[in-house]
Amino acid sequence: MKTILAYGDSLTYGADPGGGPRHAYEDRWPTALEKGLDGQARVIAEGLGGRATAYDDWTAAADRNGARILPTLLDSHKPLDLVIIMLGTNDLKPFVAGSAAYAARGARRLVEITRGHFAATGETAPQILLVSPPAVVETTNENMLGNFGGLDHLFRESREFARHYRRHAEETGVAFFDAATVAKADPRDGVHLDPANTRAIGVGLVPLVKQILGL
Amino acid sequence: MKTILAYGDSLTYGADPGGGPRHAYEDRWPTALEKGLDGQARVIAEGLGGRATAYDDWTAAADRNGARILPTLLDSHKPLDLVIIMLGTNDLKPFVAGSAAYAARGARRLVEITRGHFAATGETAPQILLVSPPAVVETTNENMLGNFGGLDHLFRESREFARHYRRHAEETGVAFFDAATVAKADPRDGVHLDPANTRAIGVGLVPLVKQILGL
Amino acid sequence: MKTILAYGDSLTYGADPGGGPRHAYEDRWPTALEKGLDGQARVIAEGLGGRATAYDDWTAAADRNGARILPTLLDSHKPLDLVIIMLGTNDLKPFVAGSAAYAARGARRLVEITRGHFAATGETAPQILLVSPPAVVETTNENMLGNFGGLDHLFRESREFARHYRRHAEETGVAFFDAATVAKADPRDGVHLDPANTRAIGVGLVPLVKQILGL
Amino acid sequence: MKTILAYGDSLTYGADPGGGPRHAYEDRWPTALEKGLDGQARVIAEGLGGRATAYDDWTAAADRNGARILPTLLDSHKPLDLVIIMLGTNDLKPFVAGSAAYAARGARRLVEITRGHFAATGETAPQILLVSPPAVVETTNENMLGNFGGLDHLFRESREFARHYRRHAEETGVAFFDAATVAKADPRDGVHLDPANTRAIGVGLVPLVKQILGL
Amino acid sequence: MKTILAYGDSLTYGADPGGGPRHAYEDRWPTALEKGLDGQARVIAEGLGGRATAYDDWTAAADRNGARILPTLLDSHKPLDLVIIMLGTNDLKPFVAGSAAYAARGARRLVEITRGHFAATGETAPQILLVSPPAVVETTNENMLGNFGGLDHLFRESREFARHYRRHAEETGVAFFDAATVAKADPRDGVHLDPANTRAIGVGLVPLVKQILGL
Amino acid sequence: MKTILAYGDSLTYGADPGGGPRHAYEDRWPTALEKGLDGQARVIAEGLGGRATAYDDWTAAADRNGARILPTLLDSHKPLDLVIIMLGTNDLKPFVAGSAAYAARGARRLVEITRGHFAATGETAPQILLVSPPAVVETTNENMLGNFGGLDHLFRESREFARHYRRHAEETGVAFFDAATVAKADPRDGVHLDPANTRAIGVGLVPLVKQILGL
């Protein structure tokens, strides 16, 4: 039995683009991935709304800096066979980091933290899979546009995700998946995913995860 | 379907008193509790080795101060029906806090954080169940005795857990369970639990959790 | 006798737009408000130059993140009948947060902190009054323009304060006052207030505060 | 008109040893001091329950480390003519610092912070008056004894306050006052003061403060 | 024998603009300065890649906020005769601070910290020399341009360094040197210096340092 | 040419047990070690008075937690061939950690940090040499005894240093040296070293360091 940590933000949490309750357990992508792995792995979901890769955001009670919290989760859930990191959308908020390049650099820091964490004590490090975020879509949701610096900014930067994440994945030698190839956001807020697109990420990850874990 | 957060330390993680690998998934108490609830609840296990209630310990890469990390976990796993807090053993280390009274005060702080967290945004707070740690036993494990200030200190203080935790539970109006009534440590290190005693906590909690959640 | 906490920045402190000494005690708006309440309330002034709502700024020895310091002040001055929050101008500095929308979101976080703080321990929460900052005016003060990202940025964003603050006040159910209706900045630096405009805020708040407190 | 900052803990806050509401405004020592200065000074009260000199205590929502918060208060209330520091009792809790010598060392750090704070920017530093805490008395309050490490510990250490504080005051060249010469705790909890003893500190400080400020 | 602390970033560290190993010890500017002082001073090099003046950047394991680390280095290397501060280039990254004006304000904070640090304990403060960063040059290095917000931003802001640094140096009464008068970056990445330009800073500082230290 | 980082406290700094100025450069042990290595290595001295291994002490302006600062120094001085860690004496202060076992555990954390730091980015880690502190001696210095919990405590714990450090060195596979075999404290304060004993540490380390570095 393999153990997988899914480290993400509201897209991993399963936030409803309509502002309603969290998506059903079955619709969240870690669940869909676990189902697709046919009982050969457990997927631990750690998705925090608003989480950024390695930047601070103190507008919530939870610590949204993914770099500060990750070591705690690695130790709480070890031994791990695979860590899947899908973060970066919140980094696009101008007050957080503001660009896909910074998001990708922050995501790379999470790769480094994971590796250094286990090397420090001589424990075996898990495999790592870096996922660039799904595509945003046009929206008229004023609140969301305010948060993300306007539609032009959001569009221009989100289209750069895959290019930057792929490069960092290659340079660090970890696996890569572009979630925009399987999922796109809901026009109600332009950023969050409906249940079908949320599940699609889990389903889309199955072949690559099987290959990584030799399942 | 109910959702329960199990917030704990190495006893929730499932650390082996012999220094071997983590207890099997089936032997950890959150799993045993979930099994006992017959499919009516999911139990999310967040057990970090060395975690204290509300005191710092920087001798590990993970943040061991349970008060600093809790808000992040509450938001990652909400909506929650019940939060079970079983922490305090590590507080007995003299450099951490050093007494059962302080452990209980720290655990009360976690109750306060949980309530304030959801009240801040007008969300419904989960029920809370405060669990005082299981009984320590005599050991000749020098390393463990060094960590915990010697056997006399460890014995004297751990016997005070239930009294202090019960009082704080009553004063704050949360549920209480004394894990020492169902589980005791393994003499190999005096503090950690063998698989049977680990499972016993989950099994022991079933009736009370059913009552709290109306199952 | 009621107790009111005035939580603010340099405008609450009483900074002189000409760079001179702090405005006289009588000219600061918390004093003017207290005077207008005819001995029925004490107003505790906590105005820190450079304070932002919930964002970091480490260019001063004082901690300017209003979210980190607020719990300490709530406990130092409780029981409180009313907390007046007038912050946000410093958030407009591009390196702090950079927009009225973020300032308003940060101010909402202070509302959440205040409510969660007292709910955590079962204490009665004070009323809350959210004040959107006074209007900035044209200036040729190069230093100030450098700090605030230029006149265009400062103007465009500051004109959005009231709209965003009012919305958050309504959504969270707290009282709202637009300070720009009674006070505008001094052209010497474009942001700070002369004594008359400073007093005007206190005088302007009197009717609403009386209504909130039932005086 | 002079301005005085009274920086303290629950004894400055005016906590009731019987667990009831805060002492009346008129009974708190900063008020008594202000009254004794006959309108020649304003005394700003910043007393936080549980505040220690320069040590952490995360069992409350407020930041209790007096060294971390002091710069913010110095800037919020400057220009100051005098800072009165009366802290140290909470340092006696074994998990905080545990001895009068450490309390005094922490109080000296607050003297250093105050001086460095204003020297950093070339502003004039206020005078400083270091006050060693009032005498504790015998009590049977189990909760309080648990907090403070038992009666023997509390007695032995609190009797050392004046000696250590006086030495640090002399070495740093600040004024010194021993509050135990005018006030002693209430036997209901052994540590906190009744209204009469609280007022006595303010009254007792009047002559020395007048002398320091040349009133 | 005098002691000088060289507090800087990758330009002080001696990073290779071609991405290769660190410049040789002899080529780093603190070494060149020490050599030029003819055995009359030791220069302690503390150059950290990515260090900003007083802003956070959590994308590395090292703490890059120069304001948080400086007190530790001042105490580790005291008594000091001179502190040379050459920081600011990394502040131009949009997610760090984003402008020469903010870089200069952050550098001023380091001047304040140095002065307050020694005044706090009554120790003699060192002289301070504020150095505005060398000139950036055109580059096609995409990675670097991504980090620094593009060539236009990098050019416009870096040309403002000297003006802002000189003003803060004058206002605080510390010495000033414009490194752009002696060194410019390597076109391979537009920001870092080749060995010759690195040495040139040390050589260029010799006359002013001699004058400051009376050598 | 090899590069060695000497990471320590006041014993590495060269504090005078008589309270006078810092020992001469030539008398500090990193200098003596460098001299003994005959020009084949540079030894970078980073000794901070009061530094503990991995525990907080906020009674000074400098950050005394050796675990928080180490990554910054590793990056400032890399590439490194050897890191020598001689810390632990300050951990014996009861409010810091209070025992040789905790000091050794903290020192082990520094070993882990060093290894994880370079593994995170795939850089080559330096060799590590763990040094248990020199012997304390009897003293009548009241201030020092107050700081260190009295002579009995200081003696009992310091005698346990070598045993604990050797065990952790063996378990982590790093080199070990017991400084008490070559140096003992000065009776004027019982903890600090006179120039001869300070130099003796550097001289004593030469053979082992040569062996480690293959010189």
From TrEMBL, chains A, B, C, D, E, F:
Q: Which InterPro entries match?
A: Ester_Hydrolysis_Enzymes (IPR051532), SGNH_hydro (IPR013830), SGNH_hydro_sf (IPR036514)
User: Which SUPFAM superfamilies does the UniProt record give?
Assistant: SGNH hydrolase
Q: Which residues form the signal peptide?
A: none
- What would you give as a GO molecular function for this chain, any one? hydrolase activity, acting on ester bonds
Residues annotated as domain SGNH hydrolase-type esterase: 6-195
Entry's Pfam families?
Answer: Lipase_GDSL_2 (PF13472)
Official protein name in the record: Lysophospholipase L1
Native source organism of the sequence: Devosia crocina
